[in-house]
Amino acid sequence: xxxxxxxxxxxxxxxxxxxxxxxxxQDGTEVSSTAGHGEAPSPAAGRTGAVSVTLSVDPGARALGxxxxxxxxxPAVIRVCAVWQPGGRGFPATPLSDTSTWRTGSTPILxxxxxxxxxxxxxxxxxxxxxxxxxxxxxxxSVRSLYSPEGNSIPGTALVTPARLSSR
Length: 168
Description:
By secondary structure, the chain is mainly β. The chain has one helix and twelve strands. A hairpin with a 7-residue loop joins strand 6 and strand 7 (about 105-110). Mean pLDDT is about 75; it is low at about 1-45.
């Protein structure tokens, strides 16, 4: 039954007043992130630029129907400026995020589908940050909830890549 997931996800979205999905900026200031773990590249000297990170979820052998994650970062150094659906083998739904949290250091991000997503690790969101000040910020992501396409709570882990940003 596919209505199970909607009974779980719609209340989650209602909690995030001001939910929105943003598209990546096309102003030419984006700096590509590195693949895998480690540090993302810094913007060129004297340039404010932006950098993107990828959020992934691994529900193991289960199909993922919905997720709610919380991304944490240092708002004195960086702030979220966009959240969008990753390409490739990404989760087949646009992530939602409350834009009023983008400058707070703690941003909830959620997504849901009414069809099955493939089991195993899957990229669920790309988050673009812009620099507020020179410095470094560690990034962490925690799972608030994961659900199967049927609306059953499932275990899993979340990962942010890269886990540290530096403007130096």
